[in-house]
Amino acid sequence: MSEKLLMKGNEVIAEAALRAGCRHYFGYPITPQTEVAHYMAKKMEQIGGVFVQAESEVAAINMVYGAASTGKRVMTSSSSPGISLKQEGISYSACAELPMVIVDVVRCGPGLGGILPAQCDYFQIVKGGGHGDYNLVVFAPSSIQELYELVVHAFNVADQYRNPVVILGDGYLGQMMEAVEFKDEEVINKVEKPWATVGTNMEREHNVITSIYIEADVLEAHNNKLQAKYRAIEANETMVEEFNCEGADVIVTAYGTVARIVKNVIKDAAKEGIKVGLIRPITLWPFPKASFEKYAETPKGFLCVEMSAGQMVEDVRLAINGKNSVDFHGRTGGNVPSQKDIMAIVREIAARK
Amino acid sequence: MMNQIILAGFGGQGILSMGHFIAHAGLLDGKNVSWLPSYGPEKRGGTANCHVIVGDEEVGSPIISNASVLIAMNGPSLEKFESLVEPGGIIITDKSLVPVKPTRTDVKLYEIPATEMAYELGNATYAGVIILGKLIALTDVVSTENFEVALRSILKPSKHFMIPEEMKALQRGAEYV
What we know:
Chain A is α/β, with parallel strands linked by helices. Helix content of chain A is 42%, strand content 19%. Chain B contains 6 helices and 6 strands; from the N terminus they run βαβββαββαααα.
């Protein structure tokens, strides 16, 4: 391991991508993720990669589609309204089974909203903001070190399953600085890409990357293939942190920066004799249902905390499946749930019969 | 021990840089650190703040809800953040720019005429480092040696000629009573 560096989340995203072998980046500036593009603009030139500031987010995602079709490791990044613009291209990429990494550093919405941190893109990323039956693998890091590791991992997962992968972080994760320790060498999953459109050399049939299947049965067969892939991802790629859950009076669930606030609440609650557990989904899709099923009946209740009006809570309630109560606490507009407010709800749940 | 420091003032006073110096020096001291900036629509003359955590334990939330120290470089910052200081905590103000007193009486208050002292040293931009001198003297949050290393790695080489003066300013702040 090399020395620890103090770096901003957005810069770490870019550095991690370069370490993972990404040499193509297409983006369009938007707060709070613009430093990703800054870093890429500076570094790509030095290492012979490609950086393009596209004319729009729509153009950028379609450039990513093109580069991914040639089998190259490619990334784009944006923030909420920019991701909305990319959704058509994301749906096309999912259908065409193109490996790519998309970073969404979430800001508060809806609409142009504001630039402060939020988690209100859960629906558009996890549930598919584009059309059709598709899933994106979604990683939700909660520290800068984890952000680095998950970006590298995201490229491997994207290649392995031929699927777009999203890094979903709130604005704070992009803007804050923490220590990061880069590995001397990254684990790169070298996947053969015989499907890539890299020229036939007159030695094989043409490869075709497409997302159009006009015949009903042909499209259904393709859908079935995609669904089989999604089941394999669910079986193999789910990631979760379970902390202090065994025998907990209350289990709180949160992801990203909010999960860190909950960790402070766990310490506060322990001083009052209340045992609080945390289930922190690291993959939002696939959702770590098994962790919720395992503990569904043991605490007095669950509490889901988000920087949204209540999005992930729907998946939590599906996983708990009526076996326990699931309370929700959320803040919007760029406000962040406070330790004090979470603690007050925890106390109330712990006091239940 | 976890030092939870909120630094706040006008945009352009170098608030974010002050936090960056402390976080970087903390890292060099082998501590766990985080630096969280306010990144709203701030601009020169508006308000800026950052939350810096330095300590031996793992950093939980990077958002500080119980500050061990508040550094207020203007009046509005004192009013906005004094309620977040834990009982027995520290408030350091730049007396040259903060005409008001905190309403809190359960905290330790240090008022330093940092901007005036900085002018005496020949450059108003030293005010922040003067305040940080007091912070380090009071809390030992970072070592002076690594503070200097942090200055050297964060400041552009074209500003390195200022480092000896910055360190003198740090010393002045530490000694001010």
